[in-house]
Amino acid sequence: MITVLKEETTEKQRNELISWLEGLGLRVHVSVGDYKTVLGLIGDTSKIDVEMLEVLDIVEKVTRITEPFKSANRKFNPKNSVIDVKGTKCGDGNFIVIAGPCSVESEEQIVEIAKKVKASGASMLRGGAFKPRTSPYDFQGLKAEGLELLLKAREITNLPIVTEIVSINHIPLFEDVDVIQVGARNMQNFELLKELGKTNKTILLKRGFANTIKEFLMSAEYIMSSGNENIILCERGIRTFETYTRNTLDLSAVPLLHNLTHLPVIVDPSHGTGRANLVKPMAAAATACGADGLTIEVHNNPKEALSDGEQSLTPEEFEDVIKQVNKIREAIV
Amino acid sequence: MITVLKEETTEKQRNELISWLEGLGLRVHVSVGDYKTVLGLIGDTSKIDVEMLEVLDIVEKVTRITEPFKSANRKFNPKNSVIDVKGTKCGDGNFIVIAGPCSVESEEQIVEIAKKVKASGASMLRGGAFKPRTSPYDFQGLKAEGLELLLKAREITNLPIVTEIVSINHIPLFEDVDVIQVGARNMQNFELLKELGKTNKTILLKRGFANTIKEFLMSAEYIMSSGNENIILCERGIRTFETYTRNTLDLSAVPLLHNLTHLPVIVDPSHGTGRANLVKPMAAAATACGADGLTIEVHNNPKEALSDGEQSLTPEEFEDVIKQVNKIREAIV
Amino acid sequence: MITVLKEETTEKQRNELISWLEGLGLRVHVSVGDYKTVLGLIGDTSKIDVEMLEVLDIVEKVTRITEPFKSANRKFNPKNSVIDVKGTKCGDGNFIVIAGPCSVESEEQIVEIAKKVKASGASMLRGGAFKPRTSPYDFQGLKAEGLELLLKAREITNLPIVTEIVSINHIPLFEDVDVIQVGARNMQNFELLKELGKTNKTILLKRGFANTIKEFLMSAEYIMSSGNENIILCERGIRTFETYTRNTLDLSAVPLLHNLTHLPVIVDPSHGTGRANLVKPMAAAATACGADGLTIEVHNNPKEALSDGEQSLTPEEFEDVIKQVNKIREAIV
Amino acid sequence: MITVLKEETTEKQRNELISWLEGLGLRVHVSVGDYKTVLGLIGDTSKIDVEMLEVLDIVEKVTRITEPFKSANRKFNPKNSVIDVKGTKCGDGNFIVIAGPCSVESEEQIVEIAKKVKASGASMLRGGAFKPRTSPYDFQGLKAEGLELLLKAREITNLPIVTEIVSINHIPLFEDVDVIQVGARNMQNFELLKELGKTNKTILLKRGFANTIKEFLMSAEYIMSSGNENIILCERGIRTFETYTRNTLDLSAVPLLHNLTHLPVIVDPSHGTGRANLVKPMAAAATACGADGLTIEVHNNPKEALSDGEQSLTPEEFEDVIKQVNKIREAIV
């Protein structure tokens, strides 16, 4: 870690700082420039609180050289992690496809979709029971009943189920859920992350729509440092000035995360774009840049004329996507 | 609300949609263009779930004309709200100054700061007991003990206390707190907002660093729709590409929010800029554009050489800020 | 186009506006709501200046339903454009690979790279002669001499050359250049675009790092409306809050642009990420989502120890990228 | 400047780099850590091309400690600059108010507005003759004729005139213009900046809507390094995810720029917000945080019903703004 001191720093202040840092078990390397003095901190700096350091008025700037995350850091754990959900593996060459509707609406709906996506090659079933909605007046999901319906669908199809948690108090309700999803809005709900870190559930951690890669990994670190290393990271689009798409899917995050961490990384092209007609090309792109899986929204009710979802595919379209994804997986081997 | 239908929409589909909308108690006005058909929805559209509507594959785009928030909407409640915290008023000409340290560190520290900021004209005391930190390895606050120390400082100074909540499970601990702060990272922690809506506490709701004004007001709506209308909004900077400042303080949000809502709006120039030398000018600017108050970080321990905080003022600097703020308040009357 | 009028609009004002719009040859459809009145404008609204309309104080908001671009609009020209550069085709299934160094440094350098990238399958040679640099103190390129060296490299390899223009006054200098690149910073240099529209050169138009897809297409429209339809669009990353990558490569722009326009779209994974180790995966991803080509930075001088570029590949690495890209192209057929 | 070397760097490579840097007249201070080696570069690093350095594959990261701008840097020129336009001064306590319409439309219009804004206290007249428009189909201004009309208005009111240039080839046309405005879209049109640097005109340089403070100052540096130091900087809003306002006015840029440079800084609350009802509060805020002036859009033609502009004030509203601004200027003395 590098710490740049302000010009007006007195020698007394500098020495006080250095001895404080050495007290933290670090070696301090001093380099005096024309205007500024630079301290090189050598040793385990992950314990150092950058904000606490920046708070000192003699400090102009602090730059980390080694990343502040340890458990998630590939440098300290070079081998790719493989997350095993009842035999369905993700990571290190194992590719998962999570598919299902945005919300669980009825037993008929979720069971029908589950059967269809399984037939098309999905390895897990997703469906929202608790829905975080921007407006209190919007549909908030079937809640506990939705979880029951997912369990029924699993019973019939044997697909592991993935569903989102929105409150630390719901953890007991998720006892039988296979993969607990932490949504973008809760990526920095640190108390929730700590509690999930005490479970042995697989956590599907989605990137916040305005969070950096580093913040994303620090949130994974919260879960891991509490004892749970079963984490799958999910890129789902970030917020930018562009308005054509609901979010801007940041696919460079996939290879970047693979450089920085050993955890598997999947992509959500449905929320990542907000447009059904972009799901197929972006699923292909995500696969081509090395994603360890996909999570895709699929709906059914063909009876209704008012069917197709803005960001959601029909089972037929989903099957088409999976076929292309599989071809690409062979091509990049 | 305006709903644009895709070109390929059949008359049958269009009529199904129209009768569905009419079933929701809306009048539907049809306007047929060369390429598209536009439906004008007239009546109370706040119940309509835009996402549900956009999900229909015959719908190209949905545009709200009237805002989806009701309780917070100035249109339905034109009078400025006045929030009263034990006699200290905020809004409709009543200006508050919340001051105190980033974190509560010790009784001596918090009591000393409390006395000093009160002497300089602060109307409330702030201090962090539970700290949401990006890294699990960073200091997380004194927690419950920190709350105790705040209560002691209140006992001595009679300043109402403001402190941040980070978990739905801590609400009982905040029983004696005067103003509960919801931080930027929890602005869309909807379960927490709903629970706070069931209390009668004053809620200081901070804008998420990547949330729009509309999302900000919808979060206030969550609290209000659960029954608690004691809300103070706080602009604290948004995330942009600029790296010189920690955030970009969006002061246009102040007059904009005053147009849209009757709730009071205060500004946090400390977190909003992340630089102590920008606090005074931005506090002045916030006051000049009509803010109903400020929340400013102040620290003490003058003994130590390693004192001044990057975004935090000394009591002397704070007094200087307040003097200028008061002059500006007179100028804009 | 939809125009929403403010509540306080008088009937007189409304009628004045309507007759003005009808004077522009539009049919106006009036829909009166509880609070607002909505005008549906039917006919060719591309002539309408939205800003001029928004400027009216009775107008609350204007929403376009049909896009303001005509020549670039797929709706009016459904067939994919094919750009032909001396027999090298781009678009409608024709894939181009533009490769070369960031800057032309010497004859030896550019000729050696040209030979190597041609051998690896590049279809065009790129190289910067005029370099737009953020700092006036940074290397600005070899200028006219650089163009000469590119022509020499073309003479030897027969690869068409692509190079960036930075001033309207340099157009005559680019007489012998095959493809004129307009860089991100000049995407909205409208005077330059108009002049290039009067030439018959192929224009490689790069997306501005903070420009929307719509602005991107409007800039293409500037060139086309001046008479030159030989345009290749290039996504090269947008500016976001993320700092790990120099830019965030917006690959969803590729299928999105293919929906909106008939022009070919290529991708620049080198500038789009700013990191050499991300070029291969992002080139693969761009190909998988349907890009019509790539532009990739390649450098040589293996003698020097200080070789490899942060966003630039060696010829060997480039060959490896092309091999994978070709496999993916077959997979997505 | 700090240069961090990658772990795999050989001693040979490191020494080659060091001797190269020393060859540039720098002293190099080496600090060896557990994983990385850090080089501290001491001396005049402004000549160093960071990108050239980052391009080396042994370099992991380069961090500047001293800013790369010299002429604009307050460190090297501590005294506030005062820009004198025919006796109208800007900077170091001298406050200017530039007012006028978005576009020059007719002699009657521009002369009438000029008289009115002068009466209300404007110190300069603005008006667009050449308009950079996103769409080629939108009104592009009266061009040369517009300049003539501005000169007439100056003849009658003696107000210096400010108008935007959009092409390097128009410089001769601007011979009689007092202040040449470089718009946001041309802030990085470096060839134009260099040419303007060869004139002795006062340049009103507007910040690009997606440019950092550092890039803004580097663009000023382009003009100054070419010989022209008569520059007024103008903050006019940046592009963010917020859609309620056209741009997000970054007022923290005002005190920040005052820390970094000696050049005067003014603010454009009209374009900065895009909403007339936000101009007064944001003009007040800009003044309160120390801006050296304002540029405000004012229009007239009260006869028409279709008058008031979305981001433009009537002369009466303008007068009201100026009265408040003057009160605030006294308050912050």
Automatic annotation (TrEMBL), chains A, B, C, D:
- Its EC number is 2.5.1.54
Q: Which UniProt keywords apply?
A: Transferase
The terms under GO molecular function for this entry are: 3-deoxy-7-phosphoheptulonate synthase activity; aldehyde-lyase activity
The lineage's top-level taxon is Bacteria
- Tell me where in this chain the DAHP synthase ferredoxin-like domain is found: 1-67
Catalytic EC class: transferase
Query: Record keywords: DNA repair included?
Result: no
| One Pfam family here | DAHP_snth_FXD
- Give all residue intervals belonging to the DAHP synthetase I/KDSA domain: 87-330
Q: Which GO terms describe its biological process?
A: aromatic amino acid family biosynthetic process
Supply the Gene3D superfamilies for this chain.
Aldolase class I (3.20.20.70), Phospho-2-dehydro-3-deoxyheptonate aldolase, domain 1 (3.30.70.1140)
Query: What is this protein's record name?
Result: 3-deoxy-7-phosphoheptulonate synthase
* Name of the encoding gene: aroF
